[in-house]
Design goal:
single chain, mainly alpha, MetI-like fold
Length: about 270
């Protein structure tokens, strides 16, 4: 096997400088978060803001400990994560499949185009009661809401990416006698690999929005349920704690997408 040569002194210095810059950015990010939490806690303790309305980091920590002790935290987080993950995966898979069909058949794309525009502009909350009637007041309607939000975005983004494939490369493959299936598998799909992962990153946020909207309408468990219940009983500690947990869960899911992208990039030799 060919041994990798050691980096030059100039590149080593550049890598060290880059690492120092990244560590400095992380330090500033953590410092900013800690400063916000400190000012928030101090404002409540000094009476500058009402802890009943705005809660505080210490009260949120106490609420988090209480949820962990009674065992309900894992149930609510698991429920929301399951609903979001299922809707996320279904929306991405079905959206990509429909986009492929639209690329394959121009007539189908023209037929579906006005409907996609209307569905994309339609507020998905208007469909919530319909989903509840169809699927019942349970997890199915929440997953369907999540799917509805991410599906249209996936179809439109992937189809636009397919249509933007390099025309010269398409002509070259056609001139060499490639079939439409070969063009799809060997050119169109690989060329839109970045588009797929950009769509996945967008769908992370959209899927959480859909899950929370569904849980706001009908749910017996989940982070959205905690937020609604906390607001109904004026327990802002529970509401703010649930919002923070929701933000953390969304970040973890986003980082998972980045992690998968990084692994595939290395596997396929797209990055060192």
């Amino acid at each position: 096997m060919r041994e990798l040569s050691a980096p030059s002194p100039a590149r080593s210095a550049w890598l060290r400088q880059r690492q120092r810059r990244q560590r400095l950015i992380r330090l500033w990010q953590v410092s900013l978060l800690l400063a916000v939490l400190a000012v928030w806690e101090l404002s409540v303790r000094l009476g500058w803001s009402d802890g009943f309305l705005f809660s505080s980091p210490s009260r949120m920590a106490a609420t988090l400990v209480q949820l962990c002790r009674d065992g309900s935290l894992a149930v609510h987080i698991g429920t929301s994560c399951l609903e979001t993950a299922v809707g996320f995966l279904l929306g991405t898979a079905l959206g990509a499949a429909v986009a492929v069909c639209m690329w394959w058949s121009e007539s189908l794309a023209r037929v579906l185009d006005p409907y996609l525009v209307v569905l994309g502009a339609l507020p998905k909350t208007a469909l919530g009661p319909i989903f509840i009637v169809w699927m019942g007041a349970g997890m199915g309607s929440i997953i369907l809401m999540t799917l509805a939000i991410s599906l249209i975005v996936t179809i439109l983004n992937m189809y636009v990416g397919f249509q933007s494939t390099d025309e010269q490369k398409l002509r070259l493959m056609r001139s060499l006698g490639a079939t439409r299936l070969q063009i799809l598998g060997m050119l169109v799909l690989p060329a839109n690999y970045p588009t797929l992962f950009n769509t996945l990153k967008v769908n992370v946020g959209l899927s959480w929005v859909g899950a929370m909207m569904g849980e706001f309408l009908v749910s017996r468990a989940g982070l959205g349920y905690l937020i609604v219940y906390g607001s109904q009983v004026f327990n802002m500690d529970l509401v703010m704690t649930s919002v923070v947990i929701l933000a953390a869960a969304a970040v973890v899911m986003y980082r998972l997408v980045l992690w998968v992208e990084k692994i595939l990039n290395r596997l396929w030799g797209l990055q060192p």
